[in-house]
Design brief:
Order of helices and strands: HHHEHEHEEHEHEE
Mean pLDDT: 91
Number of strands: 7
Shape: globular
Number of domains: 1
Helix content: 25-40%
Radius of gyration: 17 Å
CATH topology: Rossmann fold
CATH superfamily: Vaccinia Virus protein VP39
Structural class: alpha/beta
Oligomer: single chain
CATH architecture: 3-Layer(aba) Sandwich
Low-confidence stretches: none
Number of helices: 7
Distance between the termini: 52 Å
């Protein structure tokens, strides 16, 4: 196992990919190396995100709810949602991440797929009753944020919900990401093409970091 700091390693990989003109290319190598024990995925909790768990427990039963997990990584959030009755498609740009998720959750009904958030399948537009985005936006360069938030918002069907979990920015000072934390304005930018912001909580984690948990809805047709 590598002894390198996982956050520093992620920043190095991201920086090299940006210099090569491929802002998403580093994810596959990171997950491939992690599968071989040669890297650590810094955002991997080996458990569903606690802010998502808390939110789901507050919801009525969603059996059969068409759900999309964006940038699903090693699959914990997706498997958690499926175990609670949601009908889940989970995607990541990294083939190695998807293969690892399938190995970790061999009996889960989640449909794990390789897909690119910057060029998503057209048939996913306004298809899902629930869309969950955890940390994906903040792992991509700020210049891509308008494209990323537009595509994520467009996944939400009429009457559907988007849940966004992200590290909250501490101020306006530049950050050497990833992650590139999200401001309140960044959170509000997910409200595209009729999507409405219902709540934006700024939650302090015990280690001292701030996180957003934002919920959006698209009015029914």
């Amino acid at each position: 196992m590598t002894a390198q700091d996982p956050d520093a390693d992620a920043r190095r990989r991201s920086g090299e990919a940006l210099r090569d003109g491929d802002p998403t290319g580093w994810f596959e190598q990171l997950y491939a190396d992690a599968a071989q024990g040669q890297a650590i995925v810094p955002w991997d909790r080996r458990a569903p995100h606690p802010l998502l768990v808390e939110w789901v427990k507050q919801q009525p039963t969603k059996s059969g709810c068409r759900t999309l997990v964006v940038g699903s990584g090693l699959g914990d959030d997706a498997a958690f949602l499926a175990a609670h009755g949601y009908r889940v498609i989970a995607f990541d740009i990294s083939k190695s991440a998807i293969e690892s998720a399938r190995r970790r959750f061999p009996t889960s009904p989640v449909d794990f797929r390789v897909a690119d958030l910057l060029n998503p399948p057209t048939e996913w537009r306004q298809r899902f009753d629930l869309v969950v985005e955890t940390y994906t936006t903040q792992s991509l360069p700020v210049r891509l944020r308008p494209t990323v938030t537009l595509h994520i918002g467009r996944f939400v069907a009429p009457g559907g919900t988007l849940v966004v979990l992200a590290v909250a920015g501490a101020g306006d000072e530049p950050v050497d990401g990833p992650p590139w934390p999200l401001s309140r304005a960044d959170i509000e930018s997910f409200a595209v093409e009729g999507l409405e912001l219902m709540s934006a909580e700024e939650v302090r984690d015990p280690p001292g970091m701030h996180h957003w948990r934002a919920v959006f809805t698209r009015p029914p047709d």
